[in-house]
Design a protein that fits this description.
The protein is α/β, with parallel strands linked by helices and 265 residues long. It has 12 helices and 9 strands. Strands 5-4-3-2-1-9-8-7-6 form a 9-stranded parallel sheet. Helix 2 runs parallel beside helix 12, helix 4 runs parallel beside helix 6 and helix 5 packs across helix 6. The longest helix is centred in the last third of the chain and has 17 residues. The protein is globular. It starts with a helix and ends with a helix.
Amino acid sequence: MSRISATFERLRASGRKALIPFVTAGDPDKASAVPIMHALVDAGADIIELGVPFSDPMADGPTIQRASERALKVGTSLRDVLGFVSEFRTKNATTPVVLMGYANPVEAMGLEKFTAAAADAGVDGVLVVDYPPEESEALTAQLRARNLDSIFLLSPTTDEARMESVGRLATGYVYYVSLKGVTGAASIDLTEVAEKIPQIRKHVKLPIGVGFGIRDGETARAIAGISDAVVIGSRLVQEIESSPHDKLLANLGSLVAGIRKTMDA
């Protein structure tokens, strides 16, 4: 059983939902990457989505775009990101790590080399934003061969044929993007999400995580009531951006811990 599946099974048994924070690897600097990952776990994260910085992150709003710019400015590469995961694994062998990014860095490395390196580093799953299911057969085959999960995005505009395709290819969990637009663009519509989740469940027999527009504990708790996981990105990246360096880990940990506490209340 993969670390991701084991995590969701453990949470199900305890009646809890997964908290999945997203941060961009290498933001604000390379030295902070692994300490941030440990701080997220210490604060209650169940799975970490680690963003691979990219120069043209088309699905991301200004907040995460700036995070990519900061990470790239200090020279963070895909190989660096894999190195962060490998270092994280020296102290944490249980928390799943999902790499989230774009096709260009993966294709530049080569699918076979990338999936082998990801498995060696201790990555658990991969989400490539601009690989639709129709173009993901080669990637999913390579991931499957390395026992890595293939995570896919679904959105409010996803039709049932696409859901069915994702249901065939995805493993681990699926990530429902609750908004039409980029990350951090607007507030989440809870009613719309509640109507969409049952439709997705008809085609996808995996846990469903919901993200985009979740900025506080109360919203996270509401989303946890209708899904299997809550994904929070832009709000955490804003905390990284605004925190003094000597208070970064404490501020980020306090924010995540507060969301976790409200989710579990």
